[in-house]
């Protein structure tokens, strides 16, 4: 079983941060003993970049900004936290099913 580096993108656009993430994933796949796997929150323009670079990816919805303040922000932040907890469980199940051993997590 090969070790993977999990690269997480907070959005699925096609701007500079996402292009940099795809370049990093290509570099890891080519020059490292690890393989890369990118997690994106929704289907979007980044998918064409990932496919053209031959990088594995998973679409798993999650909330990128979990902010807990007072009042309504506290309730909104707590609900996002719960959604992320559920999404993390689903992602763990997918990784286990695909027999992927994650050694490192990088958030973009």
List the helices and strands and how they pair.
Layout: E1 3-8, H1 16-31, E2 35-40, H2 46-52, E3 56-59, H3 72-97, E4 101-107
Parallel strand pairs: 1-2, 1-4, 2-3
Helix coverage percent: 40-55%
What is the global morphology? globular
Mean pLDDT: 89
For the sheet with most strands, the description reads:
4 strands, parallel
- Structural category: alpha/beta
Distance between the termini: 25 Å
Uncertain regions: pLDDT < 50 for 5+ in a row?
A: none
Q: What is the element string, with H for helices and E for strands?
A: EHEHEHE
Strand order of the largest sheet: 3-2-1-4
The amount of beta strand, in percent, is 15-25%
Rg from Cα: 15 Å
Number of helices: 3
Could you tell me the number of beta strands? 4
At a glance:
With about 110 residues, the chain is of the alpha/beta class. It has helices at about 15-30, 45-50, 70-95, and strands at about 5-10, 35-40, 55-60, 100-105.
How would you characterize this protein structure?
With about 110 residues, this protein is α/β, with parallel strands linked by helices. The chain is about 45% helix and about 20% strand. It has three helices and four strands, in the order E-H-E-H-E-H-E. It has helices at about 15-30, 45-50, 70-95; strands spanning about 5-10, 35-40, 55-60, 100-105. A four-stranded parallel sheet has the order 3-2-1-4, covered by helices on one side. Strand 2 (about 35-40), helix 2 and strand 3 form a beta-alpha-beta unit. It is globular, with a radius of gyration of 15 Å. The protein starts with a strand and ends with a strand. The model has no long low-confidence stretch (mean pLDDT about 90).
